[in-house]
Write a structure and sequence with these properties.
The chain is an alpha+beta fold and 136 residues long. The protein contains three helices and five strands. A three-stranded antiparallel sheet has the order 1-2-3, with no helix packed on it. Strands 4-5 form a two-stranded antiparallel sheet. Strand 2 and strand 3 form a beta hairpin. Helix 1 packs across helix 2 and helix 1 packs across helix 3. The protein is globular, with a radius of gyration of 18 Å.
Length: 136
């Protein structure tokens, strides 16, 4: 059984700069753009969400193509949050996937289906419950 994914976020002294550490020893940051008072020193929280979906999409596609020994040579995933403005309800993520390599139409269609079944796609499109509590 794998470890429970755990991330710790710590607000730094610089306005809106947040440092992250995870249970695997990785570190990264988030910030807000200058137009909302941040220092633009790292991606915004929205961009971090999009990057998680993009990474999962590309990795999942690559894993499946490798297992099937298909001639996939690269994957590019471009994501946008609410490109047509904030809808009245919910949010819209537009995901454009470019598959590189000598793939036929059936393989390409299968890899799109795989993208729609990647774990982060399922997480973001499913029900999410967030339980918050204050620590002493």
């Amino acid at each position: 059984m794998s470890a429970i994914a755990t991330v710790k976020a710590v607000l730094e002294d610089t306005p809106y700069l947040v440092s992250f550490t995870d249970d695997l020893g990785h570190t990264w940051s988030a910030d807000e753009p200058t137009e909302v008072g941040g220092g633009n020193a790292a991606p915004s929280p929205e961009r971090l969400i999009l990057s998680g979906l993009g990474a999962c999409t590309a990795i999942t596609i690559k894993m499946v193509a490798a297992r099937k020994q298909w001639a996939l040579t690269g994957v590019e995933v471009e994501l946008q949050l609410n490109p047509d403005g904030k809808p009245a309800a919910g949010n819209d993520i537009v995901r454009r996937i470019t598959l590189q390599g000598d793939l036929n139409d059936e393989q390409r269609a299968q890899l799109l289906k795989v993208a729609n079944a990647c774990p982060m796609h399922k997480l973001l499109s499913g029900e999410i419950r967030i339980h918050s509590e204050l620590q002493a």
